[in-house]
Design a protein that fits this description.
Blueprint lengths: L10 H11 L11 H21 L6 E4 L2 H13 L5 E5 L4 H7 L7 E4 L9 H7 L4 E5 L13 H11 L3 E4 L11 H4 L3 E5 L10 E5 L25 H15 L2 H22 L3 E3 L10 E6 L4 H10 L19 H5 L4 H5 L1 E5 L6 H21 L2
Parallel strand pairs: 2-3, 2-4, 4-5, 5-6
Antiparallel strand pairs: 1-7, 6-7, 8-9, 9-10
């Protein structure tokens, strides 16, 4: 129940990768036939990634993951444009920490409402000034709220300001077209949709200039040096092909499981609060606050029953500070510590959700019974 942290690799993805981990191990930059086959495999994967978001293959740059892609987009714009960097107060730390790296660049954080939806009026106000980049995530990694990218891009387009979106949680999970949303740059990662860890991408609209961040060879059209992770890229391409296959059915199934679980929890437990938007929400995300129940204690009891959930972003699990996302939507410190995230996977069955719900109900009642 923690598939937002990472999803299990699909068997078909592993099979697609296997030859490039063993027999076809060649460097795609070499100038002989086996290496050219590896280069072709990389380009075929680039086409598969581009197809998911309706982009051109030449607009896709492979990276080591979503974090590098976020950093690259931010540093590229900060390095060539003047003005304030505008982002939201609930971004992943891959964006927030990168935005604050250069102390000479002013940063403005746009607030959100109690459901995690960006304050468009405040964004509009900020765009009246000089802005070098707007970076707003497609969907929040903790509470699952999907942001209004089309409305944001209309504002940034009118102000002639580049718009980047961290789509790591949304890519391959919901329909996401760069033409319809109007984003100029977009980040994604393979391991969130059943691909391997250690590979991601940055989409950059072809009219935009992208500054190279890693110097050396001429890989990725001279923008990112280093021998390509061929097996990882091939696996990413396969995961993208599978994500596109019957996406509507997958979304329908996950949404049914999600809504069923939310309904059962709210029906059977008093003092429980759903965090994030009910309507504009990722199909696999469920995030609750349980009154008078510490999240870490509930996590431990659930793990004893074979259920793995999360108290927040896995990238920040060692941090003892309260979640900035939950704080920003108005939860006090106690409510933050009483909150858990559950994220389902597409092949789950209703009986598994029933098992999880029963375990949560019993565990919450037990913890409340022993709490003074």
């Amino acid at each position: 129940m923690d598939n937002a942290a990472t999803a299990k690799m699909k068997p078909e993805v592993l099979r697609a990768m296997e030859p490039y981990l063993t027999r076809q191990y060649y460097n795609p930059s070499a100038n002989y036939e086996p290496a050219r086959k590896c280069r072709d495999a990389v380009e075929n994967a680039r086409e598969s990634v581009a197809r998911v978001i309706g982009a051109k293959p030449e607009e896709i740059f492979f990276t080591s993951g979503g974090t590098e892609a976020d950093n690259w987009a931010i540093f590229s714009c900060v390095g060539r444009r003047r003005g304030t960097l505008v982002t939201s107060a609930i971004e992943h730390h891959a964006v927030l920490h990168a935005a604050r790296r250069d102390k000479m660049v002013p940063v403005e954080l746009v607030g959100v409402d109690c459901h995690g939806v960006i304050d468009l009026e405040r964004l509009k106000e900020l765009l009246l000034g000089e802005v070098c980049l707007v970076s707003i995530m497609a969907a929040n990694n903790e509470i699952g709220t999907v942001e209004p990218l089309k409305e944001i891009s209309r504002l940034t387009g009118a102000a002639k300001v580049p718009f980047h979106s961290d789509a790591v949680q949304a890519f391959g999970q919901i329909p996401l077209s760069v033409k319809e949303t109007g984003v100029d740059m977009l980040s994604g990662a393979a391991h969130k949709l059943g691909g391997p860890k250690g590979v991601g991408f940055l989409y950059v609209r072809e009219e935009m200039e992208l500054l190279g961040m890693i110097k050396g060879g001429e890989q990725e059209r001279g923008k990112r040096a280093g021998t390509e992770n061929v097996a990882g890229i091939v696996g990413f391409g396969k995961a993208c092909e599978m994500a596109m296959y019957k996406m509507e059915e997958k979304i329908k199934h996950e949404t049914m499981l999600r809504d069923y679980m939310i309904h059962e929890i709210e029906k059977r437990i008093s003092g429980v609060h759903l965090n994030g938007s009910r309507k504009c929400r990722l199909p696999n995300n469920i995030h609750f606050t349980f009154d008078k129940v510490r999240g870490d204690a509930l996590l431990a009891l659930l793990e004893e029953q074979g259920i793995l959930a999360s108290a927040g972003s896995a990238c920040n699990s060692s941090n003892t500070e309260p979640s900035h996302v939950l704080t920003e939507i108005g939860l006090d410190e106690e409510a933050v510590r009483n909150s858990l995230r559950f994220t389902i996977q597409p092949d789950m069955k209703i009986r598994q959700i029933d098992y999880v719900v029963d375990a949560i109900v019993q565990s919450v009642h037990y913890l409340r019974s022993i709490t003074p």
